[in-house]
Amino acid sequence: MTTATINRLITLFDDAFRSLSIQASMEDSERLAVLIHHSMNSKNRSYHTPEHIFGMCEGMKPLQVLAALFHDVVYYQLDGGFPPPAAPWLQDVVTRNADAALVLQEFGANDPALVLCAAIFQFTPGQALPLYDGMNEFLSAILATRLLQNHLGLQDLLIVAACIEATIPFRAPNMHGKTAADVLAQRVARYYQSIFPDCNPKDVEIFVTQAVSDAVALGNRDVSSFSCPDPSLFLSSTWQLIDESNAPLANPGVYSLREYRTALVRMHTFLSALNPAHVFQCYNAQPDTDELGRLCASAQRNIGFACDFLSVKITAVAIVEALAMGTGSDCPVSMFLGDIRNLHGKPDRVEDFLPPAPVGQILNQELLNVFETGRALVSSYDLTASPLTAYVYLSMGHEGARAGFHLAQEMFDGIRSPMEFLRSLDKALVLDISSACASIAISRRDKLRALESAL
Hints:
Blueprint: H1 5-19, H2 26-39, H3 50-57, H4 62-70, H5 76-79, H6 87-90, E1 94-96, E2 102-104, H7 112-121, H8 135-148, H9 154-165, H10 180-195, H11 201-222, H12 231-245, H13 257-273, H14 289-326, H15 333-337, H16 365-373, H17 387-412, H18 418-423, H19 427-440, H20 445-454
Antiparallel strand pairs: 1-2
């Protein structure tokens, strides 16, 4: 038996308040938990849900737990605005300009929560908040500090805000060689000294070191999937993000081949440009050199594995997209590949009509295993296993699939036509896939037969 998600959230709030010896009632914990639960169960969310919070809170200190509970409440572009329960607390903070960007409004010293968050995030009135560099975290921190300011003092609110700031991911050192944690430490010190002007420097240093160390620990926990020893689990997280960040994929069986391919290419582009050294943060020698090296090596391995997985997947989809374009136009994925699932029984799938795959190519067996047996977690818009991709991988081999991916990119860029792309591949492979698709795509069957003759 499992505890309801909302009750787990209530327990996290209640335990944190009790650990801090705060006089907060169970009704207070319930009210805050309901807001989090409602806000993070948007229909557009797949990854940034309450389930993500629970893994972040394990073994954390009470203030880290409170920060974790709030750190992803606002996801403005994904939710299409502020979550309804959070909107009354945030509508006075920003306005939208002519470019639809959120602009921070003027605020006074009588709004200590906003003053604190602006200082820690270094945002100023009139500034358009950076969409992918702290906007959602900043707004989540404002919500957290405004809702918690009746329970926590400024010193504790400062730690909560710093912890949320540290969850802004994938930041390189600045032009002066300062890491995000170094910069955060400077801001925390400056703000702490402003509220405790008579505090001696040693006490400031002790506070800042502990606060930023805790913040970095939470930030690293937020991206802990990058250190996962099982690449299929990392891929599952990646797939949830693809699902979450691509609205057309919300309609399985309806989204088109091009929409699906575009979503995969977007994630491949992001991951291939991501520097593994910028995934995990370090401050005050925590994590230590050996552990940081292990984390970075794991991130590099998982990123590389995911890029290899995506490149073969994209190549397989590109072949089917080229067949669709060569026989008419883009169309729903299910028209060529079959339904993912069907209420009336097992649907016909393209892989049911493929011949046995050839053997003898040099492969990455771990990659093949994931294609054949599937990712660890179920996706709402895609099969967990990738039988067509497995067939392409077995037929082309690892290096051949890499070459095929570059050829597919040329088709996407308009350098090659769909027919030129198909002719650049092994003819037997293309014929096998075309024949299998013809068994599914009844309206394109005759045109697929004609295309096969023209290869």
